[in-house]
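User:
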Amino acid sequence: MAARIDLTLRIILANPPSGVVFAKHDAKSRPIDPVRAADGDLSFDIPIALTPTPEGPRPGGGFVRADSRGRFVYIASGQAAGDVQAAGQRRIKIYLRDLPPGVIAGDILQATIAGRAEDGGAAFATVPLLSGWSRVRP
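Assistant: Predicted structure:
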């Protein structure tokens, strides 16, 4: 069986609401690398490892979680992102499906999601990819 592959997921939050703090969440629900949205998109780099299994590569690492629907990562906002002044908190769940085949160690896979919900606040819950996973140069 092949060795584990360490790579980076780059998640772009398109058009997040200005002034809201966002952070990636580690597997212990701690906010990591919080940033306050201004004008423009936000980008989060999340290290993961793909472990070969008979069913195909399994994402894992310190940011990856799993439920009955698959493996995923969280991007948090508001209080969940460490902003104690925020009125509330939300989390975006991004499932790690359809990662491209043939990735190698050191690859960066990028996808874009909506950063804003229909109510104008920070996106939350399971958010579909606006663009599928693609390889980008480091």
